[in-house]
Automatic annotation (TrEMBL):
Residues 410-536 form the Ricin B lectin domain. Keywords: Disulfide bond, Glycosyltransferase, Golgi apparatus, Lectin, Manganese, Membrane, Signal-anchor, Transferase, Transmembrane, Transmembrane helix. It is an enzyme of class 2 (transferase). Its main location: Golgi. It comes from Bos taurus. This is Polypeptide N-acetylgalactosaminyltransferase. Its EC number is 2.4.1.-.
Length: 541
């Protein structure tokens, strides 16, 4: 579910980069859900520092795990074995449909596939030969779930047990975030009792995944925390390279490949969020997650900014492969409105970490003018940032994400009234309607990410209480200069193509009057064609 990203951050180019990676995986994931539940990941190239290995003779290192307990499956002919695609049997389509909503993926097929099936080794060449230190730290696997599908939960646990060196797994902590399904109670206890390393922690109320992970972290006894979703499949040799990175540098957060990742430099500005290993003490030094984040969403941003800005690093480790079922939507309910929850979480993150760039975040939301989004108390988070002596967001953008080109302009060129076929032109300190002339400087406007209609340093805005237009010196922080265009589609579909000014309570739309050649703002009316506007060029959707 990447829907959260539509909530507010969607246009922040930062998030876009992360999302576009994730979306690719999402497309693949839909396939996973429907067809074969196999981890499909594109092999990455290893860079030199990753292939360079010490010699095993030096006695301090050994090869990653090669024996995969699932390689001689109990039933080699079972569906999905070796990651083979599974086809829905004829006549079962109804059942597939009926059971889909249990997990928002093909639950019917998942149940047909053995919980300890074999999967293909998707690692790039060379990974199996890699050496890791003999004295790697141990890890606690923390897997939170709420109403997870039985077979996928079991498959996640089996994949960890079967494909990790036992001595590195201190424990597997299953954190039950107040599930309602009966099979997740006694049956789960009974099933897991055959594995001494599996502990089940039951939360007494719904915590949401962020605080559920924190509850797990509090109980963990391993040196490193490894977080996983409850519908994953770890591949052979997935764990050692993660722990190796943390071992070599305790401020490194190591993520497995779960999707197509920019593998040029292995630097990852924002992690996907679900799957990573982090030194336990370091996690607590960083103040864990902001415990004020609710249910789902934004915590990956928070931790990513915090890690990078406060002296750590995030790295995608190409030899570590973990499959994950991406779903179109969360299969569980949100205690409060989903969109508001995620928006509030992102608001907290923006307020604490984004410095002056937080204006971009607010400028992008689907809310008209920001409504003083109540993000709760941030004192502790801000103090933490000071205490950790973290760098600025500007530093982050310049150093961690130098190839980020935050697009400044969303639309440009002449601004044409759709019904009248006339264009806006600058006259002294005001604007009028004229015949369109693309070569006239006076008719050139930029519509920016902060929703300003700019002509050079000047911005179009209505005169308060009057409705006439005038030019105003642009100021990115002045919310009284912002116009909504296009992005209104989410909020009020009928307002697409309008240029809307105002707030939730009072929407005013730019309107042209051809006889008078004048412009004004007037109450929005979808039936009025002279309120519809188009820029010459658009740079997004
Ligand atoms: C992604 C991450 C997920 C998390 C989320 C943003 C990956 C693969 N997944 O979304 O880990 O970072 O973005 O917050 O990077 N859960 C609970 N309680 C809840 C809600 C969820 O325990 O209230 C569990 C859930 O059962 C699952 C895990 O938390 O095991 C993550 O939830 P998800 O799978 O719905 O999130 P996902 O993969 O869409
Ligand atoms: Mn997930």
């Amino acid at each position: 579910g990447m829907k959260n990203n539509e909530a507010s951050f969607s246009s922040l180019a930062l998030q876009r980069a992360a999302v576009s990676q994730a979306n690719q995986a999402l497309t693949e994931g839909q396939e996973l859900g429907k067809i074969n539940l196999t981890a499909k990941t594109r092999p990455a190239q290893l860079n030199q520092s990753q292939t360079k290995a010490l010699s095993p003779e030096d006695g301090r290192m050994h090869r990653v795990l090669r024996i995969d307990a699932t390689l001689s499956p109990r039933d080699p002919k079972a569906p999905g074995q070796f990651g083979r695609p599974v086809v829905v049997p004829h006549g079962k389509e109804k059942e597939v449909e009926r059971r889909w909503k249990e997990g928002n993926f093909n639950v019917y097929l998942s149940d047909l596939i053995p919980v300890d099936r074999a999967i293909e080794d998707t690692r790039p060449a060379g990974c199996a030969e890699q050496l890791v230190h003999n004295n790697l730290p141990t890890t606690s696997i923390i897997m939170c779930f709420v109403d997870e599908v039985w077979s996928t939960l079991l498959r996640s646990v089996h994949s960890v047990l079967n494909r990790s060196p036992p001595h590195l797994i201190k424990e597997i902590l299953l954190v039950d975030d107040f599930s309602t399904k009966d099979y997740l109670k006694d049956n789960l206890d009974k099933y897991m009792s055959q594995f001494p390393k599996v502990r089940i922690l039951r939360l007494k109320e719904r915590h949401g995944l962020i605080r559920a992970r924190l509850a797990g972290a509090q109980k963990a006894t391993g040196d490193v925390l490894t977080f996983l979703d409850s519908h994953v499949e770890c591949n052979i040799g997935w764990l050692e390279p993660l722990l190796e990175r943390v071992y070599l540098s305790r401020k490194k957060v190591a993520c497995p490949v779960i999707e197509v990742i920019n593998d040029k430099d292995m630097r990852c500005p924002v992690m996907a969020g679900g799957l990573f290993s982090i030194d336990k003490n370091y996690f607590f030094e960083l103040g864990t997650y902001d415990p004020g984040l609710d249910v789902w969403g934004g915590e990956n941003m928070e931790l990513s900014f915090k890690v990078w800005m406060c002296g750590g690093e995030i790295e995608i480790v190409p030899c570590s492969r973990v499959g994950h079922i991406f779903r179109n939507d969360n299969p569980y309910s949100f205690p409060k409105d989903r969109m508001k929850t995620v928006e509030r979480n992102l608001g907290r993150v923006a307020e604490v970490w984004l410095d002056e760039y937080k204006e971009l975040f607010y400028g992008h939301g689907n809310h008209l003018i920001d409504q003083g989004l109540d993000v709760g108390n941030l004192t502790q988070q801000r103090e933490l940032r000071k205490k950790l002596k973290c760098k600025s967001f500007k530093w982050y953008l310049e150093n961690v994400f130098p190839d980020l080109k935050a697009p400044i302009v969303r639309a440009s060129g002449v601004l044409i009234n759709v019904a009248l076929g006339k264009c806006i032109s600058i006259r002294n300190t005001t604007a009028i309607l004229e015949d369109c002339d693309g070569s006239s400087q006076l008719q050139q406007f930029n519509y920016t990410w902060l929703r300003l209609i700019k002509h050079g340093a000047w911005c179009l805005a209505p005169v308060p209480d009057n409705g006439a237009l005038r030019l105003h010196l642009c100021d990115n922080r002045n919310k009284g200069l912002r116009w909504l265009h296009k992005s209104t589609s989410v909020f009020r579909p009928e307002l697409v193509n309008h240029l809307v000014f105002g707030n939730y309570h009072q929407l005013l739309c730019l309107e042209g009057d051809f006889t008078q050649k004048t412009l004004k703002v007037a109450p929005c009316d979808p039936a009025k064609p002279d309120q519809k506007w188009k820029f010459e060029n658009y740079y997004e959707d």
